[in-house]
C-alpha cells in the first residue's frame, strides 16, 4: 500500500514537473513573440506622389487654393523644371519620367491626358501600350528605363497603388502593371491608402480645362479664360485636400505639376509635406536638390529619387535625379510663393528675347563698324578721321563689354517691372556703357592695348567670381541658362564657359605683353601659366564651374600659349601631350567627385564609365553637338570662314588686313592671343554639346576687342616700341597657338 502510494506520488510529481516545463516553454515563446515587434525597426512611412499637370504657383492663393497654400507655408516648396525630351512636356511624358527617373516620352502620341489602363486581376491595372513605350524610350539618347520605380518597390516587397490613368504610367513596373488601381480619388478607400507604401494620384483639373477648350485650325491652343482656370485650380485643390485627409499619419506627400500645357513651357509647382502624426521629412523652407544646387528649384527627375529615398530603397544608376531636401527658411507662404512666381516671370522674359541677342549684337556692330569703314574710305580730313576712328573704337569696346553686361544684369530684379524684356535690354545697355567707361576712364585710355585688356579682364573676373559664389548671374540671363531648357542649373554653362575662356586667354596673353616689353619672357610665360591654372580650376572643379569640356579645351591651349609667349618653339606632339594631360585631369576630377556624398554630373560620368555606360554619355553629347551643324549651308560657310580666319591671323599682310598688321606690330602677343582664342573656341565646340555656339560666343568677345586695339593702332599710326617695323610674320609651327 505504501509502495503503491509512493509510486503514485512519484508519477504525480513527474507529471507536475512536465506541466511546469511545458508552461515555461509556452511562456518563453509568448515572451519572445511579444518582444519581437519591439525589437524590430519600425516600418518606414508611406509616400504619395500627387501629380497636378499644368499647375503653376501663380494659380495658388490663400483664398482659391487654401490646401496648396498651406503646404507651401508649412513644408518645402520650389519651382519645378519639367523639361523632358521636347520643349513642351505632355502629361504622359511627365508620368513616364517619374517612372524612369530619366527624361522619357510617349512617342508618337498627342499631347492629351494619359489613356485609361486595362483592368488586371486582384484590383490592379496595366498601362496601355506599355511594351512599345518601353522599347521606344530604351532607344532614345537618354536610354530611360520606364518601370524603374515600380520595379524598385516590388523588389522591396512593397505594393503600388495608382489613382487615375496617369498614375499608372508613373508607378507601373517593368511589365506595365500596378498592384492596386482606382479611377479617381473619390473611388479610393482608406484600406487602399494603408495597404501600399507607394502611391500616386493624378489630379488633372487644370489640364482638362485646356483640353476641353481644344485647339484652333492651325493647331494652336485656344485661350482659356482666367476665371475658368481659377475654378479648375480651386477644384484641384479640393481634391488634394480630400486625398490628404485619407492618408495614414506620417505619410510623405510629394506634389508635382509634372507637365506643361502645350508650348511655351513654364516652371511648375513642387511641394513636399508630411501628414500629421509622424516626423516631418520636409521642414518649412524652399526645396532644393543636388541636381540644381539652387534653393527653390528642383527637377522632375528628382521626384523619383526622392520617393526612393523616403521609402528607404537604393537609387538605381539609371535614375539621374537627386532627392529633394528643404533649405530652411523663415519665409511665410505668401512671400515664398511670390518669389517662386518671379522665377517663372524671369524665365519667360529671357525665353522671348534670348535667341536674337547674339544676332542683334553682332549685327549692330557690323553695321556701325561698316559705316565707319565707308567714312574712312572717303579719305576724310585728319580731324574728322580721328573722330571717326575714336567713335568706331568706342563702338567696338561697347560691343565687347555687352556680353559681361548681360551677366551682370542678373543682379538687377528687372523681371519685377511691368515690361521685363524691355527692362532687361535697358539694363544690359547701361551696364555695357559702364564697363566701356571704365576701360576709357583713366590715363590708360590712350593705350593701344589697355582698354581692351580691361574689358577682357572684367569679363573673366566677373564670371570667375560668379561661379565661386553660386552662379547666380547665369540663371535667366542672355548668355546663361534657364530652368525651362534644363540643360544646366549650376556652374559654367557652355556659353558662359566660352566667354570666360576667351576673356581669360586674352587677359593672360595681353598681360604678358608688358613683361615681354620689359625683356622678361620667362615672366610672360609665368603670367600665362598662372592665369591658366586659375582658369582651369574655376572652370573644372565641381564646387565651382563643374565643367567637363572646358578643361579639355583650356589645358592644351593655355599650355601652348605659355610656351609661345616665353619664346619657345612648340612642336605638334607637345600639343598632343597637353591634350592627354587634359583628359587625365578631367578623369581625376570626375573620380574624386564620384566619391563625394553629392556628386555632380562629373562624378556621375565616372560612375557611368565604371559601369560601362560612359560611351552612351559621350555619344549623347556628340549627337547634340552635331545637331548644331545640321544646317549644312551654314556649316560649310562657317568651316571656310574658320580656315580663312586661321590664315588671316597667321599672315594678315598677305590678306591685306592692314589694321591687324598694325596691331601685330604694336602688340607682340596679339597673334598668339587671337589664335589661342579661336583654338579654345574650336576645341570647346568639338567637346561640348553646344557645338559651334561656343566658337561664336568666343569671337563675340575677341573680335570687337581686337578691332578696338587695331583701330587705336591705325589712329596713332606709330609703333608702340621705337624701332619696330612692319614686317611679314615669320613661319610658325603648326600648333593651336600658331
- Tally of strands: 13
Question: What is the number of helices?
Answer: 25
Strand content: 5-15%
Low-confidence stretches: 1-42, 718-738
Outline type: elongated
Query: How helix-rich are the residues, as a percent range?
Result: 55-70%
Brief digest:
This protein has helices at 2-39, 66-74, 91-100, 130-138, 148-155, 165-171, 190-195, 205-213, 226-246, 301-310, 333-353, 357-377, 382-408, 420-439, 450-468, 494-517, 521-540, 548-565, 572-594, 601-610, 614-627, 632-650, 658-666, 670-687, 692-716, and strands at 47-51, 76-81, 118-119, 125-126, 160-163, 177-178, 180-182, 198-202, 252-256, 268-274, 285-288, 297-299, 325-328. By secondary structure, the chain is of the alpha/beta class.
Task: Describe this entry's structure for a reader.
It is a single chain. The chain is an alpha/beta fold and 738 residues long. It has 25 helices and 13 strands. The strands form two sheets. Strands 1, 2, 5, 7, 8, 9, 10, 11, 12 and 13 form a ten-stranded mixed sheet that branches. Strands 3-4-6 form a three-stranded antiparallel sheet, with no helix packed on it. Strand 3 and strand 4 form a beta hairpin. Helix 13 (382-408) packs across helix 14 (420-439) and helix 16 (494-517) packs antiparallel against helix 24 (670-687). The longest helix is centred in the first third of the chain and has 38 residues, at 2-39. It is elongated, with a radius of gyration of 33 Å.
Amino acid at each position: 500500500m505504501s509502495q503503491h502510494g509512493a509510486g503514485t506520488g512519484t508519477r504525480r510529481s513527474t507529471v507536475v514537473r512536465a506541466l511546469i516545463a511545458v508552461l515555461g516553454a509556452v511562456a518563453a515563446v509568448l515572451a519572445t513573440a511579444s518582444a519581437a515587434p519591439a525589437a524590430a525597426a519600425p516600418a518606414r512611412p508611406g509616400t504619395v506622389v500627387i501629380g497636378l499637370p499644368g499647375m503653376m504657383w501663380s494659380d495658388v492663393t490663400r483664398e482659391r487654393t487654401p490646401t496648396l497654400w498651406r503646404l507651401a507655408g508649412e513644408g518645402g516648396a520650389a519651382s519645378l523644371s519639367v523639361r523632358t525630351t521636347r520643349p513642351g512636356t505632355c502629361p504622359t511624358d511627365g508620368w513616364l519620367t517619374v517612372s524612369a527617373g530619366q527624361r522619357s516620352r510617349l512617342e508618337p502620341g498627342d499631347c492629351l491626358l494619359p489613356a485609361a489602363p486595362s483592368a488586371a486581376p486582384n484590383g490592379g491595372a496595366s498601362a496601355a501600350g506599355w511594351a512599345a513605350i518601353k522599347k521606344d524610350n530604351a532607344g532614345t539618347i537618354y536610354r530611360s528605363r520606364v518601370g524603374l520605380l515600380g520595379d524598385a518597390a516590388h523588389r522591396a516587397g512593397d505594393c503600388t497603388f495608382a489613382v487615375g490613368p496617369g498614375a499608372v504610367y508613373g508607378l507601373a513596373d517593368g511589365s506595365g502593371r500596378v498592384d492596386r488601381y482606382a479611377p479617381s480619388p473619390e473611388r479610393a478607400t482608406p484600406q487602399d491608402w494603408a495597404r501600399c507604401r507607394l502611391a500616386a494620384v493624378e489630379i488633372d483639373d487644370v489640364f482638362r480645362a485646356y483640353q476641353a477648350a481644344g485647339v484652333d485650325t492651325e493647331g494652336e491652343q485656344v485661350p482659356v479664360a482666367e476665371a475658368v482656370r481659377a475654378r479648375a485650380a480651386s477644384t484641384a485643390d479640393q481634391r488634394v485636400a480630400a486625398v490628404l485627409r485619407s492618408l495614414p499619419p506620417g505619410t510623405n506627400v510629394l506634389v508635382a505639376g509634372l507637365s506643361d500645357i502645350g508650348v511655351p513651357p513654364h516652371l511648375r509647382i513642387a511641394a513636399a509635406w508630411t501628414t500629421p502624426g509622424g516626423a516631418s521629412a520636409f521642414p518649412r523652407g524652399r526645396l532644393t536638390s543636388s541636381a540644381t544646387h539652387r534653393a527653390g528649384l528642383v527637377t522632375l527627375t528628382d521626384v523619383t529619387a526622392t520617393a526612393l529615398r523616403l521609402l528607404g530603397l537604393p537609387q538605381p544608376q539609371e535614375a539621374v535625379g537627386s532627392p529633394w531636401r528643404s533649405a530652411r527658411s523663415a519665409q511665410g507662404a505668401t512671400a515664398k510663393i511670390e518669389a517662386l512666381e518671379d522665377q517663372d516671370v524671369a524665365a519667360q522674359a529671357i525665353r522671348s528675347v534670348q535667341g536674337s541677342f547674339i544676332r542683334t549684337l553682332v549685327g549692330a556692330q557690323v553695321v556701325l563698324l561698316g559705316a565707319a569703314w565707308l567714312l574712312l574710305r572717303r579719305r576724310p580730313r585728319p580731324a574728322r578721321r580721328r573722330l571717326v576712328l575714336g567713335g568706331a573704337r568706342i563702338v567696338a569696346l561697347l560691343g565687347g563689354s555687352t556680353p559681361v553686361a548681360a551677366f551682370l544684369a542678373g543682379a538687377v530684379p528687372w523681371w519685377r517691372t511691368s515690361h521685363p524684356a524691355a527692362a532687361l535690354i535697358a539694363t544690359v545697355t547701361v551696364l555695357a556703357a559702364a564697363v566701356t567707361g571704365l576701360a576709357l576712364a583713366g590715363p590708360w585710355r590712350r593705350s593701344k592695348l589697355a582698354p581692351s585688356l580691361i574689358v577682357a579682364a572684367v569679363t573673366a573676373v566677373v564670371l570667375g567670381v560668379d561661379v565661386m559664389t553660386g552662379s547666380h548671374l547665369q540663371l535667366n540671363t542672355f548668355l546663361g541658362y534657364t530652368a525651362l531648357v534644363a540643360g544646366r542649373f549650376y556652374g559654367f554653362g557652355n556659353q558662359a564657359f566660352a566667354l570666360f575662356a576667351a576673356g581669360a586667354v586674352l587677359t593672360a596673353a595681353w598681360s604678358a605683353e608688358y613683361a615681354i616689353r620689359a625683356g622678361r619672357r620667362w615672366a610672360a610665360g609665368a603670367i600665362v601659366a598662372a592665369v591658366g591654372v586659375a582658369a582651369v580650376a574655376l572652370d573644372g572643379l565641381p564646387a565651382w564651374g563643374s565643367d567637363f569640356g572646358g578643361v579639355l579645351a583650356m589645358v592644351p591651349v593655355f599650355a601652348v600659349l605659355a610656351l609661345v609667349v616665353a619664346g619657345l618653339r612648340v612642336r605638334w606632339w607637345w600639343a598632343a601631350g597637353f591634350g592627354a594631360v587634359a583628359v587625365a585631369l578631367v578623369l581625376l576630377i570626375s573620380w574624386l567627385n564620384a566619391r563625394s556624398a553629392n556628386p555632380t554630373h562629373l562624378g556621375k560620368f565616372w560612375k557611368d564609365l565604371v559601369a560601362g555606360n560612359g560611351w552612351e554619355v559621350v555619344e549623347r553629347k556628340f549627337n547634340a553637338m552635331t545637331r548644331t551643324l545640321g544646317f549644312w549651308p551654314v556649316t560649310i560657310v562657317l568651316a571656310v570662314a574658320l580656315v580663312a580666319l586661321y590664315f588671316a591671323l597667321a599672315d594678315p599682310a598677305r590678306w591685306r588686313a592692314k589694321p591687324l598688321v598694325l596691331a601685330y606690330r604694336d602688340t607682340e602677343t596679339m597673334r598668339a592671343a587671337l589664335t589661342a582664342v579661336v583654338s579654345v573656341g574650336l576645341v570647346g565646340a568639338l567637346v561640348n554639346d553646344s557645338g559651334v555656339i561656343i566658337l561664336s560666343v568666343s569671337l563675340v568677345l575677341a573680335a570687337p576687342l581686337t578691332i578696338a586695339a587695331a583701330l587705336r593702332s591705325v589712329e596713332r599710326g606709330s609703333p608702340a616700341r621705337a624701332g619696330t617695323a612692319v614686317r611679314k610674320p615669320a613661319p610658325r609651327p603648326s600648333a593651336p597657338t600658331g
